[in-house]
């Protein structure tokens, strides 16, 4: 039996994929167990504006903050465009549908100009957390928009960055004293992250955070320069804002993490730049036309794209990348529809089709067209993979993969003749041409549901072909399927599952038509669990596991447990079930290249795969630097908790971790399997195909044992 970590709802996903030097590595950890200054339009304009229903989103509530007039001008330059940004975003929300706005009623939007620290936090609580007009646990769309200065601050005990610093937004009264004579600090990311997590838990996770500021230190934002302070803010005391979480349950502090976390499940973050870059504002005409260029472009594209069919990640792809400013999109829900984060994009994976023109030096030569999709060999594409091209509900044509790279493919018509395809068309894989992983199943002749698993009719033209075939005998089978009473039993005959979780039981409850989806889900689980590279090994990448000590937001490894705090020894981790024990991980890279890491948790009891860490954004720099580390679950991030007890009849239990690393970012959401195949709601989506790994990578398995 396998028991997943208590209260773990990691829903991170792999983010999109760019070409580059291709190096892959996978670490497998097998478990065996025996988380702003203010005016209101000058003096007092706290206008609130909410939407009527945007297609599919329900009611919209927004808090919009624009900070120009900072009080410590020796540190923060007076801005000219942040308030303009706030007003422009407000106008976008309130404009009619005919004007390509969201048509949000003014009663649901609060606009804060030149807001103090107290104003920002108190208004967040009153307008979002304590707002009776936002139903608890509902589907309301909640948007937090901030334009102004950002900063970095030293936070004692922070484990997220190697320099003990965190990002923060700067209220206009930062580095002054309040009416009680107390020093006013910036608002750390973990404070904002805590508020967002509480909002998600109380009102629902359909939350979008938009930040047009920067956090790296350096020149202050002015026209043509950046939105951040001339120096870093003073260190914050450990007790800053602890009234927000003091007295809360241990589970609550486990779930909190900083606002810029790539693993954020509470919200989607759209940010103007990377953490080490600058967000610029420029003049676009007269004084009233000075704007952050990020906000200017974002609003342009929000008005242009069909939001009902556009995900956050796809919206980001429309935004330009400027020198020293790379817009970012993070959070595990960035594959959801924009402002409609309750609902995923359609189950059938679609990729935006980008036009590529190739020309000859001969001016009389004919221009031939090809098209690019951001999916490549890692996703399973090979030369000849067939894509169906759609525009809305219309099927246009088919294209085939002509050139395939790690992160993208070039598609052409079968005869390589030019084709006319409208803007906004999507590509859907029709035939992957990839037989890298087929699960072989042995089924006894007396199995009562054999016709459900293997229908006699031709299934070639079904929307999705199955991921399994019938084995001739037990010797050639990967699994065996049989019945035992009212249950179906799956016996694993090969691989890691044979060693750790050799059988699974489930009931179809009369829904035998669901059986093929169950086996597809098992095939998907087994495929990714068993991935390894026999040809190459990327030296210098390791995964460490730690028992944590300390309190939020300063948890750190207990160096007395394991070897210098690392509990993984000789490929194994042995745990004793214990209440209140919290764990974190360190990803370490001593290789000569920077890497993008992706950490997954495999639950062999439910056959689910959940992402516990992924980079913030496809456009972010590789976070796992050469000779660097990435920590997961420490500091102000949420810790991981495993079962405190085991059932009396379960002496041991197994689970697995798997770490993928690459020198290019991945668009590999399909690795996740958040719903158990045994759940009647489970549907194996077409985009979840076996990956074809054709580049350097490797795998390492570590067994974890938990005993009572």
Automatic annotation (TrEMBL):
List, alphabetically, the GO terms of the cellular component aspect. Answer: cytoplasm
Sorted alphabetically, the keyword list is: Apoptosis, Hydrolase, Protease, Thiol protease
Q: Which protein is depicted? A: Metacaspase-7
What the entry lists under Gene3D superfamilies is as follows: 3.40.50.1460
Which residue numbers delimit the Peptidase C14 caspase domain? 61-318
Could you state a single Gene Ontology molecular function term? Answer: cysteine-type endopeptidase activity
Show the SUPFAM superfamilies listed in the entry.
Answer: Caspase-like (SSF52129)
Q: Name one GO biological process term.
A: proteolysis
Q: Which domain of life is it from?
A: Eukaryota
Q: What protein family does this chain belong to?
A: Belongs to the peptidase C14B family.
Which Pfam family is one of this chain's hits?
Peptidase_C14
């Amino acid at each position: 039996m396998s028991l997943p970590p208590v209260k773990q709802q990691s829903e991170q996903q792999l983010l999109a994929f760019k070409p580059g030097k291709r190096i892959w590595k996978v670490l497998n950890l097998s478990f065996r167990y025996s988380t702003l200054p203010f005016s209101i339009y000058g003096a007092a304009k706290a206008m609130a504006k909410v939407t009527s229903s945007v297609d599919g989103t329900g009611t919209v509530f927004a808090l919009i903050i624009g900070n120009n007039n900072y009080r410590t001008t020796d540190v923060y330059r007076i801005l000219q465009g942040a308030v303009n940004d706030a007003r422009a975003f407000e106008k976008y929300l309130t404009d009619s549908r005919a004007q390509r706005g969201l048509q949000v009623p003014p009663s649901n939007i609060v606009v804060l100009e030149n807001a103090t620290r107290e104003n920002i936090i108190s208004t967040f609580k009153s307008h979002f957390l304590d707002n009776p007009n936002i139903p608890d646990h509902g589907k309301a769309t909640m948007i937090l928009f901030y334009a102004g200065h950002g900063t970095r601050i030293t936070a004692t005990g922070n484990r997220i960055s190697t320099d003990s610093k965190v990002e923060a937004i700067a209220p206009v009264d930062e580095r002054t004293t309040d009416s009680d004579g107390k020093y006013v600090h910036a608002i750390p990311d973990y404070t904002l992250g805590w508020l967002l997590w509480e909002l998600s838990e109380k009102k629902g996770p359909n939350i979008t955070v938009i930040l047009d500021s920067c956090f790296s230190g350096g020149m202050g934002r002015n026209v043509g320069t950046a939105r951040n302070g001339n120096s870093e803010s003073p260190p914050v005391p450990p007790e800053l804002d602890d009234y927000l979480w003091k007295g809360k349950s241990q589970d609550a502090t486990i779930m909190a993490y900083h606002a810029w976390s790539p693993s954020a499940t509470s919200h989607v973050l759209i940010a103007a730049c990377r953490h080490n870059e600058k967000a610029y504002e420029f003049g676009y005409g007269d004084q009233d036309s000075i704007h952050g260029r990020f906000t200017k472009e974002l609003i342009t594209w929000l008005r242009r794209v069909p939001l009902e069919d556009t995900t956050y990640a796809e919206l980001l792809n429309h935004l330009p990348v400027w020198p020293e400013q790379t817009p970012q999109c993070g959070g595990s829900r960035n594959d959801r529809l924009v402002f409609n984060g309750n609902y995923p994009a359609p189950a059938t994976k679609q990729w935006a089709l980008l036009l590529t023109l190739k020309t000859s030096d001969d001016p009389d030569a004919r221009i031939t067209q090809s098209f690019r999709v951001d999916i490549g060999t890692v996703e399973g594409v090979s030369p000849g993979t067939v894509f169906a091209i759609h525009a809305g509900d219309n099927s246009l044509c088919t294209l085939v993969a002509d050139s395939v790279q790690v992160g993208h493919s070039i598609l052409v018509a079968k005869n390589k003749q030019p084709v006319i395809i409208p803007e906004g068309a999507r590509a859907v894989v029709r035939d992957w041409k990839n037989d890298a992983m087929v699960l072989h199943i042995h089924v006894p002749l007396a199995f009562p549901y054999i016709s459900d698993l293997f229908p006699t009719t031709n299934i070639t033209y079904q929307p999705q072909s199955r991921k399994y075939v019938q084995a001739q005998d037990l010797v050639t089978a990967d699994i065996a399927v049989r019945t035992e009473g009212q249950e179906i039993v799956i016996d694993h005959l090969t691989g890691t599952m044979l060693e750790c979780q050799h059988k699974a039981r489930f009931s179809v409850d009369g829904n035998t038509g669901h059986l093929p989806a169950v086996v597809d889900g098992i095939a998907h689980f087994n495929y990714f669990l068993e991935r390894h590279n026999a040809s190459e090994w990327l030296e210098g990448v390791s995964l460490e596991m730690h028992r944590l000590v300390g309190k939020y937001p300063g948890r750190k490894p207990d160096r007395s447990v394991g070897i210098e705090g690392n509990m993984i020894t000789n490929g194994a981790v042995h745990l004793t079930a214990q209440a209140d024990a919290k764990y974190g991980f360190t990803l370490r890279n001593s290789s000569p290249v920077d890497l993008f890491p992706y950490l997954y948790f495999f639950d062999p009891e439910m056959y689910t795969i959940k992402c516990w860490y992924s980079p913030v954004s496809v456009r972010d720099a590789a976070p796992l630097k050469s000779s660097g580390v990435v920590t997961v679950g420490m500091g102000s991030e949420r810790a991981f908790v495993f079962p405190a007890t085991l059932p009396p009849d379960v002496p041991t239990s197994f689970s697995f971790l798997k770490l993928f690393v690459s020198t290019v970012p991945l668009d590999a959401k399909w690795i996740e399997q958040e719903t158990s195949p045994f759940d009647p709601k489970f549907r194996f989506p077409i985009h979840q195909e076996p990956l074809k790994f054709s580049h350097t990578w490797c795998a390492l398995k570590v067994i974890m044992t938990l005993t009572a």
